[in-house]
Specification:
The structure is a single chain. With 577 residues, the protein is α+β, with helices and mostly antiparallel strands. The chain folds into three domains: 139 residues, Sandwich (Immunoglobulin-like); 162 residues, Immunoglobulin-like (Sandwich); 195 residues, Sandwich (Immunoglobulin-like). The chain contains 14 helices and 31 strands. Helix 1 packs antiparallel against helix 2 and helix 1 packs across helix 7. It is globular and about 60 Å long. The structure holds CU-O-CU linkage (C2O) and copper (II) ion (2 copies). One copper (II) ion (CU) binds next to loops.
Length: 577
Amino acid sequence: MTNTTNPHRRRFIKTAGTAGLLAWSGLPGWLSAMEGMGHMPKLPARRASPNFRPDVEVDLICKPSAVSILPGQATRVMRYTATLVRGPADTVSEIPGSYLGPILRFQKGQKIRINLHNQLNEASITHWHGLHVPAEMDGHPLYAIDKGESFVYEFEMLNRASMNIYHPHPHNATARQVYMGLAGAILVNDSEEAKLDLPAGEYEVPIVIQDRMFDVSNQFQYVRHMHDRMMGFYGDRILVNGFANFRLDVASRVYRFRIMNGSTARIYKLAWDDNTPVTVIGTDGGLLEHPVEKPYVMLAPGERLDVWADFSGRSVGSQLVMRSRSFSGALPRMAEHMMGGMHGSPLTMGSDYPIFSVKVGRQVSDSPKLPKFLSSIRRYGLNDTANPGKPVPIGISEGPMRMLLNGRPYAYNDVLPSERIPVDSVQLMEIFHAHGGGHQADESAGHRMGGMGMMGGGMRHGGMGMRHGSEQQANGTGSRMGMGGMGGMGMMMSMAHPIHFHGQYFQIFERSGGSGAGYASVKDGFVDNGWKDTVLVMPGERLKLIKPFEDFKGLFMFHCHNLEHEDMGMMREFSVE
Ligand code: C2O
Ligand code: CU
Ligand code: CU
């Protein structure tokens, strides 16, 4: 791939307008520096085990396809299709006309077999985002299969009722395959949730929010110049469940919206256009204890929200729009300005735009009541953790060429001492900005700090890494990259990262460090009191999480769910042993 003739890149340079950005856009070899990090061994594809007796069995195919999204030419996509081999008839339900994979419904306790058949012209493997499964069943890139091969997953559903995601996870190609259409929702039910009698059937609606960019012949564009990878790729159209201009016709009653951010990088600030508060009943890991009302909710890539949407009392013909409201601080200020210029897009992340609309089409007389109590959540405290005084460090490093965790790019089985976790322990973890963090909302502060550059930023927080016994963190990015000439870039780069952990849900124990106008524009939209597997970390923020590592040994990934960042190497593994 050469850049010299790429019109986007030319425009990028024209609009960049600062010496700093020109410096890193012009660096030669940036692509090769980010591609092909580390070697990934190839294992023989797993076959069915004769001793496993599945309650449910599904054939899942990933393949190239074409669907009609915009008027005119069909769009080439990659998609999942599924057929039920055995088990309850409602296990697989298609979303007619969508490129999204069918919704998979499972019950807690079911023994599940999924036969993944790869019919793509490239390697892939499917990951069950949110599910608590053995390492071998988790869709680690190690298990990627080539075209024509099949991988058999067998596991028991241990999750509580929740909405989870299935999507590809091959080495260095996750973002592109997801972008091309490979993703679907998994809805898990259990007896605790079933007792609540929440809206079901046509009244339970999955809402998968994605953004895409189309070229003149309706094909997905996935531009791969440096800026798109550093900041993440942002489309210029919002799709819901794979449809443009999504509108839902509803009855005047309560609906349950199972909302998922399936974008690769875009963060949403969801709010009703008439300022009705958003009633949240669940997060990534299922129901909250009690419903909460929010003026708006933040939803980063990989996160889910369970929303109680009450249209009772609304008259036939009335409309309500869910919008993404304006916010700032999630991208470096300069990138926020550039997005519009680069893509000519009105959808700059953080601007105000519609996501989907709801139209009341018919009047009904009864509607369920919002339960006061939803589910019981065992709340972990420091005393439940194996390491109350010594959190497992998750250091975010931001640099012009690299987005890293714990100072190192992803490499298979490259486990730091701090990334070794005893099985069946509960760990306190701390996510912080290890290099160039401390986002500055006001520009003068940015300049003041700018002189310190990457190295300064790294050393400032380096001591923290050392205390946590992760020596490599302190000398990670700075020395490796020799960023001497790029003083201040760390500060300019600081952005929000949705950090995701495989294996098992966690709880958010404490959030601190957020400040400034940007932070003020998002902070009331976090739902932090439920089970989570992905958490948005804003610039300057420091988060303490408590996470159990139960049942399964092996390598479990954690990474930024800005999938462009993930593929750049902003991913590590815990070795649970
Ligand atoms: Cu949803 Cu490792 O990812
Ligand atoms: Cu995951
Ligand atoms: Cu990131």
